[in-house]
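Tokenise the fold.
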Amino acid sequence: MNVYSEPGQGTTFHVYLPASSSLPEAIELATSQEAQRGGTESILVAEDHEGIRELAQHTLASQGYRVILTSNGKDAVRMYKAKSEEIGLVVLDVVMPFLGGLEAYSHMCAIRPGLPVIFMTGHVAEPVSLNSRLNEGAVLLQKPYTPETLSRTVRNTLDAKNSGSRL
């Protein structure tokens, strides 16, 4: 990458990517039926951004899931304590007010070790801080994501939990 900047004139970035003489590998896309396969489990979603929270609510509820929404980690832990028996999966934003997703998940695991979790983040550096949880079977969902990606990730995580396998 080359960067050229001049005060009052702006900045120019040149990004050079390696060329390849081979054909790109085919990417197997999920069929619309696979992407639309939902369930009836209860899912706790903790997300501080209202628009993303509403997207998750609409997407998952339209798939048949029972969705419990919170806007921060502290409320997510409180809600989990009250409904831990019925919640099959938690979807946590990594960076939230009062209590981040990693800390909230640690509190939840004190109640139920091995609780299935999807961590959402829009921060590039976050996966490094998540490494230990990812090695334990947590799933990372990078923002922004599509409704189809959210649906597929939720279903795959629940199915992996039910089969006893790790993703």
